[in-house]
Amino acid sequence: MGESTTSLRDGVLSHLENLEASSHQLALRQGEGEQHQGKMAGLKARIQELRRQRDEMKAKLSMSHPGLTKGKTSTQSTMTPQAAGASTQAVLEWKVNNIKNLLQMFRLTGTSGKLTREGACLCISTAFEGTYLDSYYLHLHIRQPVRIQHHTVPAFIPLKQIADEYLQTDVKRFFSVLSGHLNAYVGRKFQAEQLQEHFAAFLAGPLQGNSLYNLLEFSYGMEPEGKTFPFSAKLAYRDPMCTLPTEASVSCKEGAAASEAEMAASHQALFYEKPLHEVFRSFADTTENRSQAVPLELPAASQGVPSEHGKATAM
């Protein structure tokens, strides 16, 4: 009887232990399942956030670099309306902030401006060797595509070509190139005006050139108010962003002396190195120094005939 009771108790306890172990394993599996579900939910949320960020980045890229995303409509079609709306707003905010940053940067490089209701109005100030010259204005419409509504840029500056190349893809590069063209133009113009204003006496007549001041011809002499003008110069500025000529030639009239030919060669080198009016300033300085040079005077002759030992004797 006692053995039966003991056997029954052991069987019940063993069964209970098995049930407890099974319950514990089941609880562990349920806990792991809940953790897995939590992780899955977190990953799904992360995927959604990454997709939203991807859509915004694609929208920004397509707005700032339309050529890079052309033909990729299949991926853009997966954007949800909410993502598209958020992307549009984000792009607009990004563009406004970008324009503000550009305005701040351009103030340090001669370009200033302000935001308007429709875009931005910018002023490009030009200078040459520390002298402030002309200012030019552009009114930009900053919605895509960015376009120039009004401007005061001279017609012979290739504004359309520069805008077609850079305005939609690199605004900073657009302003840098345009500013380079304008500063070079006003620099060449300033040199020509200074030459005619201060050194016209050296010239045979007015300068011959074009509106862009990238091709100049003139005859000149070395004496102010002189009657002869033995030198003829032709200057070409093939680089539209340069203020010094890329090609210069100085010639003499037929039958000129060898000294004049040598002088023409030295003048030609000067035109490559210095601004036009500074070359003629050096001519003027040379002429002035030569005119101020006084020949050494010999001592006055003594009223007598020198003796053999160099002493004067009375007549």
Could you explain the architecture of this structure?
- The protein is an alpha+beta fold and 315 residues long.
- The chain has seven helices and ten strands.
- It has helices at 2-64, 73-76, 81-107, 159-166, 171-198, 258-273, 276-292; strands at residues 111-115, 119-128, 131-141, 147-151, 208-209, 215-220, 231-236, 247-252, 305-306, 312-313.
- The strands form three sheets. It has a four-stranded antiparallel sheet with strand order 1-2-3-4.
- A hairpin with a 2-residue loop joins strand 2 and strand 3 (131-141).
- Helix 5 (171-198) runs parallel beside helix 7 (276-292).
- The longest helix has 63 residues, at 2-64.
Q: Which terms summarize this structure?
A:
315 residues, alpha+beta, 4-stranded antiparallel β-sheet, rod-shaped, disordered C terminus
Biggest sheet, open or closed, and with what strands and sense? 4 strands, antiparallel
Amount of beta strand: 15-25%
Q: Which shape, going by the Cα principal axes?
A: rod-shaped
- Roughly what is the average pLDDT, rounded to an integer? 79
What is the string of SSEs from the N terminus onward? HHHEEEEHHEEEEHHEE
Let me know the number of strands: 10
Distance between the termini: 183 Å
Summed up, the helix count is 7
How would you briefly describe this protein structure?
Helix content is 52%, strand content 17%.
Strands, helices and their partners?
Elements (H helix, E strand, L loop, with lengths): L1 H63 L8 H4 L4 H27 L3 E5 L3 E10 L2 E11 L5 E5 L7 H8 L4 H28 L9 E2 L5 E6 L10 E6 L10 E6 L5 H16 L2 H17 L12 E2 L5 E2 L2
Antiparallel strand pairs: 1-2, 2-3, 3-4, 5-6, 6-7, 7-8, 9-10
Helix pairs in contact: 1-3, 4-5, 5-7
